[in-house]
Amino acid sequence: MWAQPTEEITLPVSNTYDAENRRHAASWPLMKRLARNYLRPQIWRVVSAMFWMAVAAGTTGALAKLMEPIIDEIFQAKNQAMLVPVAAGVMLAFVFRGIATYAHSVQMNHAGQAIVAAIQRQLYGHLLKADLAFFHANAAGQLVSRLTNDVNVMRFAVAEVLTSSFKSALTLAILVAVMFYQDWLLALIAFMAFPAAAVFVARLGKRLRRVSYNTQAELGNFSTILNQTFQGARHVKAYGMEAYEEARASGIIERLFRLNHKGFRVSAMSAPVTEFLSGAAIVTVIVYGGLQVISGDRTAGALFSFITAFLLAYEPMKRMARLNGQLQAAFAAAERVFAILDTAPAVVDRPGARPLAVASADLRFQDVHFSYGTEKGALHGLSLEVPAGRTVALVGPSGAGKSTILNLIPRFYDVGQGSVSIGGVDVRDVTLRSLRANIALVSQEVALFDDTVRANIAYGRKGAADAEIEEAAKAAAAHDFIMALPQGYETRIGEFGVKLSGGQRQRIAIARAMLRNAPILLLDEATSALDTESERLVQDALRRLQRGRTTLVIAHRLSTIVDADRIYVIEAGRVGEAGTHAELLRRGGTYARLWALQSGGEPSADRLAG
Fold this sequence. Notes:
This protein is α/β, with parallel strands linked by helices. It has helices at about 25-40, 45-75, 85-130, 130-135, 140-180, 185-190, 195-230, 235-240, 240-270, 270-295, 300-340, 400-410, 430-435, 455, 465-475, 480-485, 500-515, 530-545, 580-585, 590-600, 605-610; strands at about 365-370, 380-385, 390-395, 415-420, 425, 440-445, 520-525, 550-555, 565-570, 575-580. Among the domains are: about 25-340, ABC transporter type 1, transmembrane domain (ABC transporter transmembrane region fold, Up-down Bundle), CATH 1.20.1560; about 445-515, 3-Layer(aba) Sandwich (Rossmann fold). It has 21 helices and 10 strands.
C-alpha cells in the first residue's frame, strides 16, 4: 500500500466559510475570470443571444405603447379603421417575442452547457495532475462535489443569470423609456423609492453568499459520506453500523436542510420589500395619473399605457432582485472551484527536464531526507542501491518508511534533501511522463476499474494488440480463469474488480505490469492479503515478471523474498541492516528476529546455514 501522511496536509482548499479569517472574494474579479476564461470562446453565441434578447425586450415595450391606441382610438373614439392595424401590431409583437425568447434561450443554454463542460474538463485535468498529497488531504466526495454541484451552480451564473439580467435590464430600460416618454415627472415619482430597495437587496446578497458557500461545503461532506459508506458497505453490515451511518448522514442532511431553508428565507426577504415599494408606486401613479385624466390633462389611453409599462417592468425588477441572490450563490461556488484550480502541484517538470533514456536501470538513494510536512521526518539520510536487473527487498516494521521509499521513485513526492537517481540521472531532472513510463507498479491495493478484463489489463498502454494482452495474461497465470468468465476478456469486473477474487485481481494487475514491459518494477506487498494457493500462483507470476527487471519489493512475509539479491531492513527512516537472507540471519539482528517470529522459533543452525 502506498504510504499516506501520518498527519493531514493542509492545502488552500477551504470547506467552511470563516467570516473572520476569510473575506468574500471580490465579485468583479470572479466575473472577469469567468468571462475571460470560459465565456469568451462562446462570445458570438452570446452576442447572437443578446440580439434576440433585445428583440424580446423591444416587443415588450411595443406592447406597452400599443395600449394607448387600444384605449384611445378603439375603446373611446371607436375608430374602426384602427382595429385591424392595432390588433395586427399586438399579434406581431407576441409572435416576435416568442421567436426571440426561444432563440436566446437555446443559444444561452448551449453557451452555459459548453461552459460547464469546459470548466469540468479543466478541473478534472487539473485534479489528475495534482500531487498525491492533495488527494490524501482532500476527501474524494468533496472533489466530486466541486466537479458536479459547484460547476453546475456556476453554469447557472454564467448562462441563466446572464440571460435574465441582460434581458431584464434591457426590458426594464425600454419600459422605463416608454414611461418617461409618457410623463417624465410621473416616472420619477414611480421609481424614486427603488434605490433603497437596491441597497437592501445588495446587503441580502452578502448573507446569501456566505450561506451558499457553506451549503456547497456540506454537499461535499454528504458526497464524501455516501462515497465512503457505499464503498465500505461490506464492513458497515459486518459490524452492524447501519444505524450509526444513518445518524451520521442524517446530521448532514439536517444541516443541509437548515442551510437551504436559511438561504431561501434570506432570498425571500426581498419579496415583501419590493412588493411594498411597488404597491406604493402604483398607488401613487393611479392617484396622480387619475387626477390628470379627470382634469383633462391626460388621456385615459396614455395613463393606461403608462400603468401597463410599469406593471410589465415590475416582473423584470423582481427577477433582477432574485438574480442577485442566485449570482452570489454562483460566486460562492466559483470560489470553491477556483480554489482547486489555483492550487498548483508541487511535483512538476523542472525547466529543461528531458525524457528519461534508461541505459542502465539501477536505482540509487543518496542521503535522502523526507517529511510529509510534519515535524517528524519519514526518512533520515537514507542511502541504498538497487543494481540494474536485480531484485532488492525492503522489510521492517510498519511506519518505518518502506512505502515512502517507493513513493519517491516515480515522484509521487519529491525528496527534501538528497537525491533519487535512475542510471545516474536524478529523477527530478527528467520529465514525469517519461519517468513513470519506465516504471510498473503492483501493490496490495489493486486499482481495477469497472470495465472489461481486456481494458483493465491494457490500462496504461494504449493500442496494445489483443494477442499481446492475452500473452501477458498467460504469463501472469490469469488466462485460464479469464476464459472461464461469462464473456471471457470482455467480462466487466465491477468497481474495484469486486466480481473477482483477491488472487484473480492480483494476477490481472501483474498482467497489466507485464504488458507495460517497463524496466523498473515496484512491488508493494503484492501477496500479503492472499491465501496460500493464490499466493503460490501470484508468486510464480511475479517471478516471471521480475526476470531481467530492476525490482524493488516491499514484503511483510519474509518467505517471499528469501531469494532477493539484497535485503534492506528499514528502521525509523534509516537502513538498519543490509545483506542477503543468509547473511542477515547470521548477524542475528532485527531481520533474524523477524524471521524467527514468522517461522515459529529462533533461527536454527540449519536456517543459518541456508
